């Protein structure tokens, strides 16, 4: 409706012709100005846009690649087998018990338990097990021989990687000390009415599970 009224208005014919000319000039200038501005912007943006791209590439290449920790089963497959642990721990306990018995005349010992147990913590839902060896002596270790006996056990624990010593009980004729490490290795040595020595390995997989082909998820 407004367009019809402008066409019928008598003032339209009396308008100076210079104004439409200026309008046409402005219309002509605007595209040129727009083209120049676009060209300048293109040059400017081409220079600017390359910098963020390079910075993004640089930052992405310099940033360390995120690596997810290995799952529990994969970690267990990197360790020696349960059978290897059982053999090693039995040998260490046997040698250690012989040295302790040599400190006390008439003291004898025997393997009371050579078994395994299910793993706990992060390996609770895996097929992993730990080796456990328990030696029981025929009598106590006298206080006079206790320091030497502890040193023998300490040296044995180091062979198994258990270097953290924690005295649990230290009274006359009643002692206990535990050597351990963060992986779960634990060597326990104590004496009261009798002397006991035990060693528990960290979580291991049985050899059959290590060599078994892995099923893709």
Description:
- The protein has 217 residues and is an alpha+beta fold.
- It folds into two domains: 2-52; 75-208, 2-Layer Sandwich (TBP-like), CATH 3.30.2030.
- The chain contains six helices and six strands, in the order H-H-H-H-E-E-H-E-E-E-E-H.
- Helix 4 runs antiparallel to helix 5.
- The longest helix has 45 residues, at 18-62.
- It is elongated.
- It starts with a helix and ends in a 6-residue tail after the last helix.
- Mean pLDDT is 79; it is low at 1-54 and 57-66.
Quick summary:
By secondary structure, the chain is of the alpha+beta class.
List keywords for this structure.
217 residues, alpha+beta, TBP-like, 2 domains, 6 helices, 6 strands, 45% helix, elongated, disordered N terminus
How is the topology of this model organized?
Blueprint: H1 2-8, H2 18-62, H3 72-77, H4 82-101, E1 109-118, E2 129-137, H5 146-159, E3 164-171, E4 174-180, E5 186-191, E6 195-200, H6 207-211
Helix pairs in contact: 4-5
Overall 3D form:
elongated
State the helicity in percent bands: 40-55%
Outline the low-pLDDT stretches: 1-54, 57-66
The strand count comes to 6
Q: Strands across the major sheet, in which order? A: 1-2-6-5-4-3
């Amino acid at each position: 409706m407004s367009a019809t009224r402008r066409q019928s208005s008598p003032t339209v014919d009396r308008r100076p012709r210079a104004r439409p000319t200026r309008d046409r000039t402005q219309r002509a200038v605007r595209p040129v100005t727009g083209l120049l501005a676009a060209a300048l912007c293109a040059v400017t943006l081409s220079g600017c846009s390359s910098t963020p791209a390079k910075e993004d590439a640089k930052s992405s290449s310099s940033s360390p690649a995120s690596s997810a920790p290995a799952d529990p089963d994969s970690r267990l497959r990197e360790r020696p087998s349960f059978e290897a642990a059982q053999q090693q721990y039995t040998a260490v306990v046997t040698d250690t018990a012989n040295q302790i018995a040599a400190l006390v005349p008439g003291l004898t010992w025997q393997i009371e338990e050579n078994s395994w147990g299910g793993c706990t913590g992060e390996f609770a839902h895996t097929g992993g097990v730990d080796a456990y060896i328990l030696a029981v002596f025929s009598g106590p270790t006298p206080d006079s021989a206790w320091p030497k006996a502890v040193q023998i056990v300490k040296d044995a624990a180091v062979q198994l990687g258990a270097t953290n010593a924690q005295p649990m009980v230290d009274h006359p004729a009643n002692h206990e000390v535990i050597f351990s490490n963060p992986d779960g290795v634990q060597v326990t040595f104590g004496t009261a009415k009798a002397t006991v020595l035990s060693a528990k390995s960290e979580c291991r997989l049985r050899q059959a599970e290590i060599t078994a082909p892995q099923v893709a998820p």
